[in-house]
Structure formats: C-alpha cells, structure tokens
Amino acid sequence: MRREHAVAFAPGRVNLIGEHTDYNQGLALPFAIAEGVTVCAQRSEDGRIHAHALDLGEEDTFALTNRSPVEGWRAFVRGIVAELQRAGLELAGANLQITGDVDRGSGLSSSAAVEVALCLALLGLAGETSDRIELARLCARVENEWVGAQTGMLDQLASLYGQPDRALLIDFRTLVVDPVELRLDGWRLVVVDSGERHAHASSGYNERREECAEACRILGIESLREAGPDAAARLPEPLSRRFAHVTGENRRVREAVAALQAEDLAALGVLLNASHESLRENYEVSTPAVEATAQRLLESGAAGARLTGGGFGGSVLGLFAPGISLPTDAHEVRPGAGAHLLSG
Predict the structure, then answer these.
(1) Helix, strand, coil percentages, rounded to 5, for the chain
(2) Averaged over 10-35, what is the pLDDT?
(3) CA 38 to chain centre
(4) For the residues 102-118, what does the mean pLDDT come to?
C-alpha cells in the first residue's frame, strides 16, 4: 500500500579488517556504526522528485524520467531513482529531505548510507520491500555507473545487515553474511579523521581495481580469490604486490575472527597493524596524513591502528586496551543496528 510519507535511516560503517577484498571475491569484517543518514520522503503533487540536502543547503528537482548525468550528491539521488525504476518499482513524485551525521569523505561510507537510506525511504513510500542482497547490488550499481566509483558491495552490505555488538563476516564469493560477536570487555575502538578528504571516483581506487582485474587476466582466473600459491611469481610489479595484499588480507580476516572468538584483543591489534602495513606497502593507498594519524594513535598507546575505508585519505581506526587515555580527537565507535524504516 502506497504511503504519504516514510522516514528511513541507514548507518555508515567501520571496516574492522578486510580492505580492497570485496571486489576480489574475498573476505571482510565490517560493522555498522551509530552515525548515518536519514531520509524523509513525502509525496509530491507534481510527480517530480524534489531532493533537499539539508546539511549542504542544496536542492535538486528532476522528472522521474530524467537520466541526465550529474555530479556530487545529486548523482546518488538520480541514480537510486533510476535504478529502482529499472528494477520494476513504480515510483511517484516525492519530496526528499536528506541529512546525516557521518562525515563525507572520512572513510566511514557516507555514500553507501545515502544510497541505502534513499532506497528504503522510496520503497517505504511505495509500500514495497526488497531483498537486502538485491538492494546492495542496486546501490553498488549506482556507485559504479552513476557516481563513477568502481567499489564493491562491502559498504552497502554492512549498512543493510548491521547488528548491535556484532561485526559481520562477509564472504564476497557467496555473499553470505555471518555475524561475529564483538565483545570488547573494556577495550575501545576509535576512529580519528586524518583531515584528508577522499572520493573513490577521483582517487586511485579505480586504478587499484583495474590492476586486480589485469592480474586476473594474466592468471586466467575470475578473481584473485581463486589464485594459487605460485600466482605472485607469475605477476609483474606492482601487480604481485596487489595480489600479496589481497591474499594476505583474506588470511588476516580469518585470523581476526579467531581472535575475537578467543577474546584475544591484543592479537586483533597486531592484525590491524599488519593490515595497515600491507595497505601502505603492497596496495599503496595510504598518504602522509593517514600515516601521521596512525603513528599518533600508536604513540598514544593503541594496540593497533590502520586506515579504514578505501584509503587515499579518510579515517584511521585504533584499538585501545582498558585504562589507556584516548586522544582528544578520537571518536569511539561500537557496532550498531543496520538500515531500517523509522516510520512509514
């Protein structure tokens, strides 16, 4: 049944470990956070979409049939509308108010939160529901084809499937999502913004994905998940290092799950450091600002620190043992609920 209004919330995410593995059919261990994006949707009388980005003080108005390319936040709105229609949803005109408290460009996936919240609000307005895996696929198409960032589905799945006190072990070969209890027992996870904004579409992110695709072409496989132990020796530089990161990161995800199940948070810290080193040396997605932030966290007593998100800026994740004072600019994060309708 169609509704007159609907309100949806979708969280951002922190990726505990497992970076640049999603588009390589690998493993990752993200969790949803409390911060995110809220979209209020109300029927419009003129059959058009009126979108208001309240935090930016910007607007966009377009017909439901409009497929014109645009940039910035408008691309997310127009892309979601177009992809929902392509999936068979009969949309009516709507007034959309978009607001959020997850910083854009901070590596906490504000983009996926916008996509997912828009989807749920428009579905709620139409009185429809959708399989969450299919919603993640739809949102990823928007990111890839409308925004121009060749990301995988990690961020969308984390936003859609988040659970309080749980990280999510995601296998991107099967798209199976398994909750993993994140029992901290006084340990704290924090994020610190490096101060360097990033955008996947304009950073080296797409180049890294193409390098992985080239490695697969050389090896004659569909994804790096399928590569054998001799693969690195068959690849030229820097492809052999890209491969080394992806395969090593998949192993670190499994070891992180084991550490959490054993309640060995110190071991998790060691894995965070190893992940960051690989992202810096093998995948080359760190920056001086990110390195300075990670080093500052370690000097403050963190058991582990690594960039979280695609890199080239954004935030650094730190793990602190009980009793250690946090840096003044550290923001503590805990696993929260996934995307849901607030009303409608």
Answers:
(1) 40, 25, 35
(2) 97
(3) 17
(4) 87
DSSP 21: -
Amino acid at 82: A
Q: Which residues sit opposite 49 in a β-bridge?
A: 62, 94
| CA 323/CA 215 separation, integer angstroms | 45
Distance of alpha carbon 44 from alpha carbon 155, whole angstroms: 30
Burial class for 16, CB neighbours closer than 10 Å (0-12, 13-18, 19+): buried
280 token code pair: 């810096």
pLDDT bin (cut points 50, 70, 90) of residue 115 is very high
Which pair of structure tokens corresponds to residue 339? 């995307």
162-218 pLDDT tens trace: 999 999 999 999 999 999 999 999 999 999 999 998 665 556 889 999 999 999 999
Q: Mean per-residue pLDDT for 328-337?
A: 96
Give the predicted TM-score (pTM) of the model.
0.94
Comparing C-alpha atoms, which of 103, 249, 238, 108 is closest to residue 172?
Answer: 249
| Pairing label, strands 166-171, 176-181 | antiparallel
Are 113 and 334 contacting, i.e. CB atoms less than 8 angstroms apart?
A: no
Longest alpha-carbon distance in the chain: 63
Q: Please give the backbone phi and psi of residue 341, each rounded to the nearest 5 degrees, phi first.
A: -80, 135
* Residues assigned a catalytic role: 155
- How far is residue 218's CA from residue 70's CA, in Å, rounded to a whole number? 36
Q: Could you give phi then psi for residue 122, rounded to 5 degrees?
A: -70, -35
* One-letter amino acid for residue 209 of the chain: R
Q: Are 279 and 307 in contact (CB under 8 A)?
A: yes
Which residues have CB under 8 Å from 172's CB, separation 6+? 21, 22, 23, 24, 25, 26, 27, 28, 152, 153, 154
Residues 97, 119: contact at Cβ < 8 Å? no
How distant, in Å, are the alpha carbons of 19, 173, 267, 271 from that of 276?
A: 9, 24, 15, 9
Q: How far apart are CA 73 and CA 59, in angstroms?
A: 10
Q: Kindly tell me if the per-residue pLDDT of 318 is higher than 80.
A: yes
CA distance 46 to 73: 23
